[in-house]
Amino acid sequence: MERTIGTYSKLIKSKVNAGKNAGNIVERLSIRGYINFALDTVSLLDTITATKSSLDDFIELPLIAIHNQNPQLWSPFNLISQDMVESVPTDTFLRELKIYYSRSTTSPLSYITINNMNFKIAARALLYSHVITSKTYRRIRSEHRRGNHFELFNASYKSKTCWYIGAVLFYFEHNNTSDPQNSQFLVFVEVMKEHYATEYDNTIPMIKMNSNGATTRHAVINLNDVQHQVGLVQLSLNSLEYKVVAPYKIFNENVKQSAGHLKHI
User: Fold this and answer.
1) b or e along 111-134 (b: 16 or more beta carbons within 10 Å of the residue's beta carbon)?
2) Max Cα-Cα span within the chain
3) pLDDT score at 47
4) In this predicted structure, what is the pLDDT of residue 193?
5) CA distance readout (Å), 88 to 38, 95, 152, 246
6) Short-list 74, 77, 94, 78, CA closest to 218
7) d(CA 93, CA 237)
8) What is the rounded CA–CA span in Å between residue 110 and residue 90?
C-alpha cells in the first residue's frame, strides 16, 4: 500500500487543485487496470503491429543466376500438393509451365519435360521497389477490396513484344536443371480475356475480364517480364471492361498495336 501511495504521489504534479489532479489520476489508472484485466490488449493489437522480419521471410536468386535482376519472393510460403496448386489443378499448372519453357527456349512443346518437381510457392514479390501481392495473399489476409495483384507484363510472339494484363495467383521459384545459374522466379497468372485500346485514344490501354463461369486462360511468365503493377478502372457501360492505370507511369505510346492475344501466349 505504501508503494502504491508513493507511485500516486509522484504522478500528482498540480500545485493548484491537487485533489482534482489526484482524482483524475486514480480514475485513469483504474480504467486502464480494468481494461487490462478484462481484455488481452497484446493479442488484440498484434494484428496491427509490424512483425519482425527474418531471413526466412524472403528468398533471392543466386548471384550467379542469369535471371537475377534483384527481385525477391516474400512470405507466406507454401509447398505444392499432389492434386492442387493454390486452387489450380496440378495438371493445368504443369502444362502452363511446359508452355513457358517452350516459349522461352523456342523448343517444341513435345520436347519439354519438367525434371524438377520441387516448387516453393510465394504469396508476394518485391519488384522495382514495389510489393506486388497475389490472390493467394488476398485469401490468406481476407483482403477482397484491394486490387494490387494486377500487373502488366510482356510476352514475345514471332519477334513481336506484346503486353498483357494478368491477375497474379501466386509466385514460385523453379530450376528445371541442376545448374544453379538457371534458377528463376516465375509467376502464375490469370490472363484477361481481351486487350485493346480505347476508341478515342490509342495510348489508353483497356481490357475485358473473363465472365463468371467462362474458361479462364492461365499462363506462366518470368517475374522479370512484369513491367508495372496496375490498377483497373471499371467502365459504367460494361461491367467487364476496364481501363488500365499504373502508378508513376504515363502511357504515351500506341498500345493498340502491341496489345496481346490469348492465342499467342
Assistant:
1) ebeeeeeebebbbbbbbeeeebbb
2) 90
3) 57
4) 94
5) 44, 11, 21, 28
6) 94
7) 35
8) 18
Residue 165 predicted with pLDDT over 90:
yes
**C-alpha to C-alpha distance for 119 and 91, rounded to whole angstroms:** 14
Grid coordinates in use for 78? 507454401
Q: Are 249 and 229 in contact (CB under 8 A)?
A: no
Radius of gyration from C-alpha coordinates of the chain: 26
Helix axes 2-11, 18-38, angle to 10 degrees: 120
**pLDDT tens digit string along 136-152?**
999 888 877 777 899 99
DSSP 237: S
Between 215 and 201, name the one with better pLDDT. Answer: 201
CB-facing half-sphere around the CA of 240: CA atoms within 13 A: 10
pTM: 0.77
Residue ranges in the chain assigned as alpha helix (H): 2-11, 18-38, 41-45, 90-105, 135-141
The residue assigned the cell 479462364 is 216
